[in-house]
């Protein structure tokens, strides 16, 4: 998978240029600019559209051409002429070519066994805007972009600490994607950091195009439906995680940061929980917990009760359900399955279509098709109500990965309820609970702090107490600095 590249830099610029032209042939966007600097021949190599030509012309090429400074040796070119602040030397031509392919400019000069890499990265980039997937009522309206340097700046604005570290790495033998590992040195859980570095170091793939690649390659259990690493578009969420001792990873070309370790309580929290008063946030969390329970059990309860346990329904309600199902040709299980699959298809269609069309499809699918299905006698009105409540409660979950996992579990529970009724629901929930108890994220229990309870950690669990109670960082994170408020 490795590409052979000439290692040493020749003292003759022509040799290196001819080699690079042969290596990079059939690329119309690569510019080779050769010129003379005093008595030495020199050359620039850069990619048109990725390098800042104005910086290159005004602060590099123009001073070299004017020759206003007398120099005696070739090494003085960097020290006395080049008017750029970010310039470094490379001894391997392969490293220079990699930098050039990333948007920098490679400068070669006769008589030098090293090449200069001038920082001229300037490609089209999306401006910072509000993340569409994680909106908040009160809070910052900034979201990550596809440019990794913009993203590190957004986080550093929130952590003005000398102990905040941004460690660069490179993934992909062909894509050579820039990756940044971020943590606060005197807070981070060192075991988590070491394990993360180990897993990232073991990645050997030709291309990394998104942070989702890294997330799937470093998670603990690839066969679990639950996400073991948190992904977010919000820099304030990343900063809050770093202050708790966790580690964040940014990947170039991706607007999503990934945070490790992740626990289920973390994934069910929203930034709004901390930006609003504690009583309102606590009430919302309790409602969110109830909504999650309803979203995975409500259709299955309907199937189990109407198919096996009709005796537990009040008489008037039983008559109402029976009357609404009169004329429906399918059993409750098939009816629930049809509507749940239809809901999943509708959500997928809305996510894939352009926004103006998606809004129309949502109205058409939710109202017209649902009403037509009831009028045609395919489903009962109460099933439409149950599916509607299920859809609303599913959307309350802040994390999309958790929502997808709950949707999969809901299908399994519906099937189990159709086979053995309420016992099937309890059996599946018990299996899921056992799986969650055994699941870990970088050595941290997935259900922490529930499985290793510490009374101080419950201040930010089911409810959120006032900030004056947040004197210590979470115990289960095993941070170096355990105090965050005196």
From TrEMBL:
<dbReference type="Pfam" id="PF03323">
    <property type="entry name" value="GerA"/>
</dbReference>
<feature type="transmembrane region" description="Helical">
    <location>
        <begin position="412"/>
        <end position="437"/>
    </location>
</feature>
<keyword id="KW-1133">Transmembrane helix</keyword>
<keyword id="KW-0472">Membrane</keyword>
<dbReference type="InterPro" id="IPR004995">
    <property type="entry name" value="Spore_Ger"/>
</dbReference>
<protein>
    <submittedName>
        <fullName>Spore germination protein</fullName>
    </submittedName>
</protein>
<feature type="transmembrane region" description="Helical">
    <location>
        <begin position="328"/>
        <end position="347"/>
    </location>
</feature>
<feature type="transmembrane region" description="Helical">
    <location>
        <begin position="359"/>
        <end position="392"/>
    </location>
</feature>
<dbReference type="InterPro" id="IPR050768">
    <property type="entry name" value="UPF0353/GerABKA_families"/>
</dbReference>
<comment type="similarity">
    <text>Belongs to the GerABKA family.</text>
</comment>
<keyword id="KW-0812">Transmembrane</keyword>
<feature type="transmembrane region" description="Helical">
    <location>
        <begin position="286"/>
        <end position="308"/>
    </location>
</feature>
């Amino acid at each position: 998978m490795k590409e052979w590249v000439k290692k040493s830099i020749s003292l003759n610029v022509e040799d290196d240029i001819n080699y690079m032209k042969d290596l990079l042939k059939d690329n119309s966007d690569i510019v080779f600019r050769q010129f003379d600097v005093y008595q030495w021949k020199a050359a620039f190599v850069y990619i048109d559209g990725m390098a800042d030509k104005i910086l290159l012309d005004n602060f590099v090429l123009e001073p070299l051409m004017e020759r206003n400074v007398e120099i005696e040796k070739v090494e003085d070119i960097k020290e006395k002429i080049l008017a750029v602040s970010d310039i470094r030397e490379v001894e391997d031509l392969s490293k220079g070519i990699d930098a050039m392919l990333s948007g920098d400019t490679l400068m070669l000069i006769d008589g030098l066994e090293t090449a200069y890499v001038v920082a001229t990265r300037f490609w089209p980039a999306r401006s910072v805007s509000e993340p569409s997937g994680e909106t908040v009522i009160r809070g910052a309206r900034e979201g990550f972009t596809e440019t990794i340097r913009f993203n590190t700046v957004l986080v550093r604005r929130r952590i003005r600490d000398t102990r905040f570290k941004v460690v660069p790495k490179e993934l992909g033998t062909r894509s050579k994607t820039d990756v940044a590992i971020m943590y606060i040195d005197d807070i981070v859980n060192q075991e988590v950091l070491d394990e993360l570095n180990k897993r990232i170091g073991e990645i050997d793939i030709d291309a990394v195009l998104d942070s989702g690649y890294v997330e799937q390659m470093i998670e603990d259990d690839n066969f679990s439906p639950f996400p073991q690493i948190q992904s977010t578009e919000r820099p304030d969420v990343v900063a809050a995680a770093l202050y708790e001792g966790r580690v964040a990873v940014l990947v170039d070309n991706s607007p999503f940061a990934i945070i490790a370790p992740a626990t289920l309580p973390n994934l069910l929290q929203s930034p709004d929980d901390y930006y609003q008063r504690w009583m309102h946030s606590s009430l919302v969390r309790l409602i969110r917990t109830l909504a999650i329970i309803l979203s995975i059990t409500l259709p299955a309860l309907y199937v189990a009760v109407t198919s096996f346990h009709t005796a537990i329904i009040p008489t008037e309600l039983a008559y109402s359900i029976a009357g609404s199902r009169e004329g429906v040709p399918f059993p409750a299980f098939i009816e629930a399955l049809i509507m749940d699959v239809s809901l999943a298809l509708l959500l997928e269609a809305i996510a894939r279509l352009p926004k103006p069309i998606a809004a129309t499809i949502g109205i058409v699918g939710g109202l017209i098709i649902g009403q037509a299905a009831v009028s045609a006698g395919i489903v009962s009105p109460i099933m439409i109500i149950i599916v509607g409540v299920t859809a609303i409660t599913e959307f309350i979950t802040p994390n999309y990965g958790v929502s997808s996992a709950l949707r999969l579990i809901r299908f399994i529970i519906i099937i189990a309820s159709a086979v053995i009724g309420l016992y099937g629901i309890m059996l599946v929930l018990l299996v899921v609970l056992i799986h969650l108890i055994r699941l870990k994220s970088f050595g941290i229990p997935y259900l922490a702090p529930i499985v290793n309870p510490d009374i101080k950690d419950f201040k930010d669990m089911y409810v959120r107490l006032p900030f004056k109670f947040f004197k210590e960082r979470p115990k289960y994170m095993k941070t170096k600095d355990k105090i965050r408020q005196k």
